[in-house]
Automatic annotation (TrEMBL):
Residues 324-547 form the ABC transporter domain. The keyword Transmembrane applies. Residues 529-548 are annotated as: Disordered. The chain crosses the membrane at residues 20-38, 91-113, 119-138. SUPFAM superfamilies: ABC transporter transmembrane region, P-loop containing nucleoside triphosphate hydrolases. This is Probable ATP-dependent transporter ycf16. Residues 535-548 have a biased composition (Basic residues). Gene3D superfamilies: ABC transporter type 1, transmembrane domain, P-loop containing nucleotide triphosphate hydrolases. It comes from the Eukaryota. Belongs to the ABC transporter superfamily. ABCD family. Peroxisomal fatty acyl CoA transporter (TC 3.A.1.203) subfamily. The keyword Nucleotide-binding applies.
Length: 548
């Protein structure tokens, strides 16, 4: 129209069109910026929703533990932190492109069809063939992109592992080995990237060729009509304009292939994670809390409800005594090649008693604790125990959170519940730190509220183990399972820790082989023989000393 007005020297029409364009250039930027903002906002809201859902499912019950142990999903961190973002960004972008293209397609199809229908039909046929070829090439691009995401995540993981173990590596002088491993992982990143770049080049040959070759089509079709004087110059430019619009709209898959491949790869990785988390959610069985009177009846129901090859877990009310009871418990290692560890253990842990589980390295002591905690289920027999929230399990290397010393001492209480009126007070924390012989820790750490990112790096293992005992006292739990939790302590500090538990009347189940542990327990369970050998349990006689 602009060109027609100029060529016909129609100043009035030209002026009207100029005003129209002036309005468009003022409104245009506002519309475009608002559109971009709306897209970014929608993507952010969606990402927030998906991240929240994934984090909830991942941290619910034992999903995080099972996913890691089963190895079903790798790089969960990257999937939650990055793949969700890529997915939502790309999905919103593509959705908007599809909507805009659909409107555009309808508008310009009408114009192009009116000008010259055969040109329109030829264009659709051309786009259909181009899209088909691109889809075939694209499927390889998706798997290469997926491989790239995995390789990048694996490489980053090796760097994080080195970062988390700097001291061990430095002591071993293991730099050369670490370097080799880092290079090996980054070599896979580059090898896959190189395949990806080559494949993108091949795809680009096709997509570029597709765009250029078709440009000749409108000229070939409309030039003869123009030369015969049956078409105005303006109509030619209109044809070109409409043709290119329709071409762009029907070639969406061709032009957005790279973006689509990235979106599909991210969506696939996210799908694997979501499926695994949903699976975990479904397999989560609600275990009823049994009062004393209900225990006998539940013995029948509980056994029937347990899948074959699994240890029956029954949760007892805190009032039930004995607090823990194992009935004919046999354990096998999890995974595809199960190995028999402990066989046919039956025992009861009365309230306030102290049981020590001993045995050779690898015999299955920690596995027995894992089974009591419900982390491992492979095997048979029945475990009766209080809810996990009523028992504190202390591993050999205590977990240090990223929170402050206050939050670390009160762990696993949430920071919010610590801050509540009625939560753990600073006075109580300082008193308990004193009791576990960490009286100067708060001052050294810069106060109870100082951020604790480096706490794990700064505290010795023995100090961390004493902090873990502080957690037992502060949590007020009546049952505690200790897995070599005093391995780094001197005899005096060990006695002090067990003394604290005895004073509080806490029921204790310990795992360990240190001779000094013997005196802090009243019953010993000795697991014997590799591969599920016999076991012995006996009560320690008063004043009896350790005999290996
Ligand atoms: N996730 C797992 N999958 C398969 N086997 C495992 C797994 N975890 C541990 N095991 C194996 O189970 C056996 C028992 O391990 P466990 O940690 O219970 O031994 P332990 O008696 O506590 O040994 P230690 O005194 O050396 O700590 C070991 O041979 C170990 O390699």
């Amino acid at each position: 129209m602009f060109w027609n007005a100029l060529s016909s020297r129609d100043a009035a029409k030209f002026g009207r069109l100029l005003k129209f364009y002036a309005a468009a250039v003022i409104i245009g930027p506002i519309v475009i910026v608002t559109y971009e903002w709306a897209k970014a906002r929608m993507s952010l809201l969606w990402r927030r929703f998906l991240t929240k859902r994934a984090l909830n499912a991942y941290t619910r019950k034992l999903a995080y533990y099972n996913l890691e142990n089963e190895g079903a999903v790798t790089n969960v961190d990257q999937r939650i932190a990055e793949d969700i973002r890529t997915f939502t960004d790309r999905a919103v972008n593509l959705m908007c492109i599809v909507v805009v293209s659909a409107i555009d397609l309808v508008t310009f199809s009408v114009i192009l069809f009116r000008i010259y229908p055969p040109l329109y039909v030829a264009l659709l046929a051309y786009a259909a063939v181009g899209t088909g070829v691109t889809l075939v090439l694209g499927s390889r691009l998706v798997s290469l992109r997926e491989g790239q995401l995995t390789a990048e995540a694996d490489a980053r993981f090796s760097l994080l592992r080195l970062k988390d173990n700097v001291e061990s590596v430095a002591f071993y002088g293991g730099e050369a080995t670490e370097r080799q491993e880092l290079f090996r992982r980054f070599a896979s990143v580059f090898a896959n990237a190189s395949r990806l770049v080559s494949w993108e080049r091949n795809v680009a040959y096709v997509t570029r060729g597709y765009k250029y070759v078709v440009q000749i089509l409108p000229s070939m079709v409309v030039a003869p009509v123009f030369f015969k004087g049956k078409m105005e110059l303006g109509a030619i430019s209109q044809t070109y304009f409409s043709f290119n619009h329709v071409l762009a709209d029907v070639s969406l898959i061709v032009s957005e292939l790279s973006s689509l491949a990235e979106f599909a790869a991210g969506a696939r990785r996210l799908g694997t994670l979501t499926d695994a988390l949903d699976q975990e959610g479904r397999s989560e069985s609600a275990v009823p809390v049994l009062e004393p009177a209900a225990i006998k009846a539940a013995a029948v129901d509980g056994a029937a409800a347990t899948p074959a090859g699994a240890v029956t877990q029954r949760v007892l009310a805190t009032s039930v005594d004995p607090v823990i009871r194992l009935t004919d418990v046999s354990i096998t290692t999890p995974g595809v090649r199960p190995r028999s560890l402990v066989q046919g253990v039956s025992l009861a842990v009365p309230t306030g008693s102290r049981l020590l589980i001993m045995g050779d390295s690898g015999v299955g002591k920690s596995s027995l604790l894992r089974t009591i905690a419900g982390l491992w289920t492979a095997g048979s027999g029945t475990v009766d125990r209080p809810a996990v929230s009523d028992v504190l399990f202390l591993p050999q290397r205590p977990y240090m959170t990223l929170g402050s010393l206050r939050e670390n001492a009160a762990y696993p209480a949430t920071p919010a519940s610590v801050a509540n009126p009625g939560g753990v007070t600073d006075e109580a924390i300082l008193r308990v730190l004193q009791a576990v012989n960490l009286g100067s820790l708060a001052e050294r750490a810069g106060g109870l509220g100082a951020r604790g990112e480096r706490l794990a790096g700064v505290l010795s293992l023995g100090e961390q183990q004493r902090l873990a005992f502080a957690r037992v006292v502060l949590s007020g739990r009546r049952v505690v399972c200790l897995d070599e939790s005093t391995s780094a302590l001197d005899v005096e500090n060990e006695a002090r820790m067990y003394g604290l538990l005895a004073d509080a009347g806490v029921t204790v189940v310990s795992v360990g082989n240190r001779p000094t542990l013997f005196r802090h327990h009243d019953t010993v369970l000795r697991l014997e023989g590799g591969g599920g050998g016999p076991w012995r349990r006996r009560r320690r006689r008063r004043g009896e000393r350790w005999r290996p």
